[in-house]
Amino acid sequence: MNAPAQTAPAKINFVQGLHMALDEAMAADENVIALGEDIGDEQGGGVFKITKGLSTKYGRHRIRATPISEQAIIGAAVGAAIAGLRPVAEIMLMNFVTVAMDQIVNHAAKLRFMSGGQTNVPLVIRTTTGAGVGFGGQHSDMLEAWFAHVPGLKVVMASNPADAKGLLLSAIEDDDPVILIENILAYGQQGEAPPPGYRVPLGKAAIARAGTDVTVIAYGRAVNDALAVAEAMAGEGVSVEVVDLRTIAPFDEATVLASVEKTGRAVVVHEAVRAYGTGAEIASRIHEELFDTLKAPVGRIGSTYSPVPFSPPLEKAWIYSQAQISAAIRATIDFKRRA
Amino acid sequence: MPDQNAVPDRAILLDIFRRTTLINRSDERFRALLTQGKLAIVYYPVRGQEVLSAAMMAALRPDDYLITTYRGVGDQLAKGIPSKLLWAEFTGRATGTCKGKGGPMHITHPETGVMVTTGVVGSGLPIANGLAIASQNKGDGRVTVVSFGDGASNIGAFHEAMNMAQLWKLPVIFLCQNNKFGEHTAFADHTSVPSIVDRAAGYGMKGVKTDGNDPVAMYNTAKAAVDRARAGDGPTLIEAMTFRMLGHLFGADFSYVPKEMTAAGIADDPVPAFRRQLLEMQVAEAELAAIEAEVEAEIDEAVTFAMESPFPEVSELRLDVVAQEIAA
Ligand SMILES: Cc1ncc(C[n+]2csc(CCOP(=O)(O)OP(=O)(O)O)c2C)c(N)n1
Asked: Alpha helices of chain B — where are they, by DSSP H?
């Protein structure tokens, strides 16, 4: 055949990255299946079109478009995982995990331990969320801290399309349950296309930008905000290092601590409500390990302590801002110990 | 068994027509403003389901309770929420039903009995039981209606709530608006039985399937269920058949809906059919036109009120989280 060789695109977006990972994983291993609402081609290939084409390619036994039954989706995925499949269950929006919490927290997370290692649950839960869409209180929450707090669950979130692909592939290949959080507003975000077979190891952070004065630790879209702030502050002579956690739980303590040991200052940023967020754990670990060398207390930025409001000006005010990030960075630099 | 085809009083039919028109014209106005870029919200159209909501709510007392969903604008208007307050909430204004904090998916207006609007599929059903328990205990004679879609009958909450309601003979009506799609999934691809009403038998509950697009059948079915509940005879599951004439969301693609189905749905459009029916019953054209003009004027006023209303102050983020203000 003389068909022109298919050239891989130089840029991809999140939807393409996630689709590539699913396609590669399904092609490589027939035990990989997907379950979720509207994910089949008869339903248009998913609400965000991430699974478009896959049910036609791999069949309805492997791409299972489900009823609106989150508890049954995750429960079935747990069962299939125990029996040797590698299910990727999609929960359309993160708030709907609440309906399936028993299956996730009491079962997926614990069956390996409670069975004394006889069974394990190689399950991936993909879900999406994020404020700024105008969806209001029940469709926008970032709930990663709930899962991070449950021993047995891993939680990951990408800041760019290549990492989304690489994290999803690694999550599918992992032998334990992994929750991959996506952001609705980031689906169209473009980034470098990863090389074929690209994987991002779980539990490994990346230095998204090197710097010397202060470390900003973030994940998901907060990384992009941190990078924008770092760029702006470089002009003022402040050198900001940005650590992209990629895996939220268990987080890469070695990379985070090495960076903060170097800079002596740290700010943690996440979109989730600040109080009781993952930033508290990260900040606390830094304080415990680097108390002697820290030049200032670790700053924490998160969103407002209220449900996500609907009204556009309220929603805008609710979400953490780049201005808050730069203010927190400055506060670590201006910090003076009490005499 | 009351006659499903007995035609209600002319006054009742005109009341249903007014509610139908209000829903239909409001939905149309939302979509027009969205199309013109004068409004930017996530909007769940109710086109095709107007008569169903209008006839159900016409069978209720003003103080009866309602729980509905994101696709609830028809239910809410028909239940009596003033257009001004509803529009102000849909546009995020401080003057809205919920001070702009809840938004279109979370309308609450206790004055008209609208207690919860949920964005989570199926979650209204157990809460409806709780309202009904309160009525049962207080003996206030109120009936609770919980409205949901066909897709919602596959979630655990539906089944748990149905069993509990029947067990305790609660004054609640489970109103399933079967519009033949759950988001992008066709009914037959998500539900194991041919009719949702078949599920009532599993709980020993009375189930009635009706044509939600027929104002007479829908009203009679609703009225019978309301009377039953009010008399203390327990819950009813109503499966009201209708059709979602547009996509799941405003502007969303719905090419997954088979062409013939959309064509049949348009041919069966309940709103013009109801109008023709009234004319055939010798209701004067002028009388219907007057209702329509009144409704248009009400919507004009509501849109102006909403658009001219202020947005809430940012300090509102600290209020209503709990009873006490959150410290800044
Ligand atoms: C628990 C839960 N799962 C998924 C969703 C996303 N979702 C919103 S509406 C909808 C379809 C619901 O269909 P149906 O119950 O038939 O009601 P309709 O939208 O047709 O009125 C879905 C899946 C949700 N809101 N809640």
From this structure: 10-35, 50-58, 73-79, 83-90, 124-138, 156-167, 187-190, 215-230, 259-267, 270-280, 285-308
Domain closes at, from A162, A192, A222: A192
Q: Regarding beta strands A11-13 and A190-192, do their DSSP bridges make them parallel or antiparallel, or are they unpaired?
A: antiparallel
A257 and A186 housed in the same domain: no
pLDDT value, residue A196 = 87
- The residue whose CB lies within 8 Å of the most ligand 1 atoms, and thus the one to mutate among B76, B183, B184, is B183
Question: Do B182 and A68 count as a contact with CB atoms less than 8 A apart?
Answer: yes
* pLDDT tens per residue, range B247-272: 999 999 899 999 999 999 999 999 99
pLDDT, mean of residues A158-176: 98
Q: Are strands A214-218 and A206-209 parallel, antiparallel or unpaired?
A: unpaired
Task: Judge whether A339 lies within some domain.
Answer: no
Of A192, A218, A253, the last residue of a domain is: A192
Element (H, E) at A132: none
Residue A333 above 60 pLDDT?
A: yes
| Ligand 1 neighbours (beta carbon < 6 A) | A 37, 68, 70, 92, 96, 99; B 71, 119-121, 148-152, 179, 181-183, 244
Residue A13's pLDDT band (boundaries 50, 70, 90)? very high
Q: What is the mean pLDDT of residues A41-53?
A: 95
Q: How far, in Å, is the centroid of ligand 1 from the Cα of B254?
A: 15
pLDDT per residue over A266-282, tens digit each?
A: 999 999 999 999 999 99
CA proximity to A243, closest of A194, A197, A321, A298: A298
Tell me which residue has tokens 């329509």.
B292
Residue A76 belongs to what H/E stretch?
helix A70-82
Give pTM, 2 decimals.
0.95
Domain hosting A230: range is 206-334
- Tell me what pLDDT residue A1 has: 39
Per-residue pLDDT band for A7 (boundaries 50, 70, 90) equals low
How far is residue B128's CA from residue A292's CA, in Å, rounded to a whole number?
57
ipTM for the predicted complex: 0.93
Compute the nearest-CA separation of B122 from chain A (Å): 9
User: Residue A266: which H helix or E strand, with range?
Assistant: strand A266-273
* Segment A52-60 mean pLDDT: 97
Q: Which residues of A touch B155 (CB under 8 A)?
A: 68-71, 99
Q: Which two tokens stand for residue A175?
A: 């032998």
Does residue A254 share a domain with residue A175?
Answer: no
CA distances (Å), origin A52, targets A20, A40, A57, A336, B151: 11, 7, 10, 55, 22
| pLDDT tens track for A76-99 | 999 999 999 999 999 999 999 999
Query: What percent of chain B lies above the pLDDT cut of 90?
Result: 97
d(CA A103, CA A109): 9
Residue A212's alpha-carbon distances to A299, B123, B257, B325, in angstroms, are: 17, 50, 57, 41
Q: Which of A152, A182, A148 is nearest to A280 (CA)?
A: A148
Q: How many structural domains comprise chain A?
A: 2
Ordered domains of chain B (ranges, CATH): 10-308 (3.40.50.970)
